[in-house]
Amino acid sequence: MSELLDIYLQENGKGGHEDLGFQVHGLTADRVFDSYYFALAVEPLDTIEAVRECLAQYLEQWGRSIERMGDGEARILPIDLSDQYTGCLSVIEDGQSLSLEYGISMTEGWAISVNKPEQHFCGVRDFRVDTPEPLVVDKTFFLRSLFQCSKRLRGL
What we know:
Helix 2 packs antiparallel against helix 4. A hairpin with a 6-residue loop joins strand 2 (20-24) and strand 3 (31-33). The chain has helices spanning 36-40, 48-67, 118-121, 139-153; strands at 5-9, 20-24, 31-33, 74-81, 86-94, 97-105, 128-129, 135-138. The longest helix has 20 residues, at 48-67. It is globular. It is built from four helices and eight strands; from the N terminus they run βββααβββαββα.
């Protein structure tokens, strides 16, 4: 597998709905979320490139947080920001490996600060797993794939 993560933003004319693609190969199906709250974070909105840049910076914040993790530490990384819930990727470090699970929190998307999400990475208390079993991956491989998604969003 060349890439672990597939995170992308597509123009579809639906105003920030059903345009944010997300998949962790071996863990989740290809899912489609709304970029609406990412678009709100860059208002006044000029272009989809501004939303892509916001999402790229958001993913880089995930990466920096994971880089600082120690053995046994966990992060809950919000990605599906909805009016009713938040879809999240759970990441737990075990040596040089990461255990990944996908699930939801009942925190509404508007409560997540897209520009400063770090406060949510350790503060989600009601995460419920929605995948049958964790996916264990090499930490370096995960980070490389995450930062590659960020570059692709920028067209690099």
